[in-house]
Amino acid sequence: EAEDKSMRLGFLLIAAGLLSLLGLGCCWLRPALQERGGGGSANCTVLAVRQLGERFACTFSCGAACRGTARYPCLQVLVRTSRSSLPALLHEDERQLRTNPKCSYIPPCARDDQENSENVTYKQKYWKEKVGSQPFTCYFNQHLRPDDVMLKRTHDETVLLHCFLWPLVTFVVGVLIVVLTICAKSLAVRAEAIKKKKH
């Protein structure tokens, strides 16, 4: 009975490892690799920092059943990359780029529009005064968005490693349990046969 249980556990772990590897590969890993494909890093230098007259809506939460809409001004940080002489629009990461491709920064959504404006103005001062003309590392994807660059990547190497590592560990542990159970079973059969020969 114990052997049957361990065999079932082993096969369950093997199946879970394979299914999670397939699921992560299809749903998450493939899009992440597509985002990284054709991309790379470059040195960026700030060309201009400006606020557009346009304001965008964001959703704030003030409790379990309390949600509302506020507005924030659009901040654009234009940079020059070491890969191209054309100006590019800087974004925090891929997620922010998808949320609002027109702006470089989306503040944490506050209930008060004035607070959102202050957050954007603070970020504007940071890019103008603290960063200024100092070069910094940025990331780009020439195939997907040639006119945009990112300050950081959403999908880095460690996340991609974990995507492969844990399903693989689950699969290997399952295989080990099955192999060790089969070995233990065959050793028990041999021991029983030797015992019978002696008697």
What features would you describe in this structure?
- One of its GO terms (cellular component) is voltage-gated potassium channel complex.
- It is a multi-pass membrane protein.
- InterPro entries: K_chnl_Ca-activ_BK_bsu.
- GO terms for molecular function: calcium-activated potassium channel activity; potassium channel regulator activity.
- The protein has 199 residues and is an alpha+beta fold.
- The chain has a domain at 41-154.
- The chain is 51% helix and 29% strand.
- It has helices at residues 2-36, 94-99, 113-131, 157-198; strands spanning 39-61, 67-81, 84-91, 136-141, 145-150.
- The radius of gyration is 28 Å and the shape is elongated.
Structural class: alpha+beta
Number of helices: 4
Give me the count of strands.
Answer: 5
* Topology order in helix (H) and strand (E) letters: HEEEHHEEH
Nearest-angstrom radius of gyration? 28 Å
Q: Indicate the overall shape.
A: elongated
Features:
199 residues; alpha+beta; five-stranded mixed beta barrel; 4 helices; 51% helix; K_chnl_Ca-activ_BK_bsu; ion channel; potassium channel regulator activity; membrane
How are the elements arranged and paired?
Blueprint: H1 2-36, E1 39-61, E2 67-81, E3 84-91, H2 94-99, H3 113-131, E4 136-141, E5 145-150, H4 157-198
Parallel strand pairs: 3-5
Antiparallel strand pairs: 1-2, 1-4, 2-3, 4-5
Helix pairs in contact: 1-4
How would you summarize this macromolecular structure in one to three sentences?
This protein is α+β, with helices and mostly antiparallel strands. It is 51% helix and 29% strand.
